[in-house]
Amino acid sequence: MNRRIITIDGPAGAGKTTVSKALARELGCVYVDTGALYRAVAYEIRRREINWEDSALLDPFLDGLDLDFVMAGKEPVVTSSGQDISAYIRTHEISMLASATSAVPNVRKALLGIQKSIAQERDAVFEGRDMGTAVFPNALYKFFLTADVKVRARRRFEESNASGISFEKILEDMAKRDADDTRRTVSPLQQAPDAILIDATELDVSQVVEKMKSAIKAI
Q: What is the torsional sign of CA 140, 71, 157, 104?
């Protein structure tokens, strides 16, 4: 059976998570936060103090990972060896480490199987940075969600203001992450040629979701 696969790519802070969850709920699809998988890898690297730049250490570490998505009520959570680690993977430090390690080919290869397996089992909305270009290039429904970097940084600052990190620091790091993600040689962040571009700088979540639903109906 051909499953309905919807990909939503875009830079950090563009609102992909909130939009993807809302769209999945309205369409009756499972929501898959691929960024959470990379954050989970980064969290385990930090927790276990793995030298991820040493392939002799990284490869057996990746082979031993047991990551999954499970439902906790109406919300999907990411687990590692059966333990919910969702509360630990959204820190600024883990975000930056995830951006760095996600460029490692073996890390991407290790997580590809999980994503493909989900796509074979049910209709899904996949959120990430290379879902429509590298992971599901044949997906029928593709979107690229973006927004002005200052707007994205402000949103991230408001989400994490209890962390004590200044808006200026978040803006600086977000600009760096944009550059790193778009310039990396392995699966860089870019809009797929057949993806629909949505600029959410002046749109709220419901407006973005409606644009996506209208586009899906029109395809």
A: negative
